[in-house]
Amino acid sequence: MLPRHLPNSAPARPCRAGADHIPGMIPVMDRHDFDALLCDLDGVIRFFDHRELNRLEEESGLQAGDTLRTAFTPERERALLLGRLTRAEWAASITEGLTARVGGSRAGELAAAFTGAPNRVDPEVVGMLGRLRGTVPVVLVTNATVWLDEDLARLGLHDVADAVVNSSRVGVAKPDPAIYAIAAERAGVPAGRCLFVDDSAANVEAARAAGMSGLHYREVAQLRTALASRLAL
């Protein structure tokens, strides 16, 4: 869902022979052989701009990322991703967590800058998903908030997929095995016939453990290559 970690700079894992060595590919089948695409949202389709937040953090004597780390303490993250916090409640909790360090007024500014950070979509990825929907089911699988539908509508993504598996609605979050089973069921395809795409290596590994093929997403060229055969149909 919302970005909760610094960019992952770990090297791509090697692929097994016959997978054409797509960077980040973690397959359990030939990459061309899938009947549904299960795709993450944040870090693949949607991206956040935290420049204003980072400016405020520096001005406040904080390190870049301090607000994010406060927003995603284990307790806050679990409550958020399982649908137990509204946007206002989350912002208030972040404010409370930062107040001792920067004072209440600035803590509120930081919380607002984080929870209201501008975001954009990658039009090339959206275009590929739209074309792919004509050949196989596409399902968004995201650790997200109860206001996700509003966000998707605002970004023009209300019809980007055939179904959406939102952790805050289904009551379980990646990398729990249950969410992958739910996603495959929504796609109407056995897990072994699904290609799962996520910018988190841990989430991709969990999908692989569930029997899926996995792509650890880092750049659009990877997805373009992985989907090439289906998009050419």
TrEMBL record:
Q: Which one Pfam family would you cite for this protein?
A: Hydrolase
Q: Mind telling me which InterPro entries this protein's record contains?
A: HAD-like_sf (IPR036412), HAD-SF_hydro_IA (IPR006439), HAD_sf (IPR023214)
Q: Give the top-rank taxon of the lineage listed in the UniProt record for this protein.
A: Bacteria
Keyword Transcription regulation among UniProt keywords: no
Q: Which GO terms describe its molecular function?
A: hydrolase activity
Which keywords does UniProt give here? Hydrolase
Q: Which PANTHER family match?
A: ALPHA-D-GLUCOSE 1-PHOSPHATE PHOSPHATASE (PTHR43611), FLAVIN MONONUCLEOTIDE HYDROLASE 1, CHLOROPLATIC (PTHR43611:SF3)
Name the UniProt record assigns to this protein? Putative hydrolase of the HAD superfamily
Record lineage: Bacteria, Bacillati, Actinomycetota, Actinomycetes, Kitasatosporales
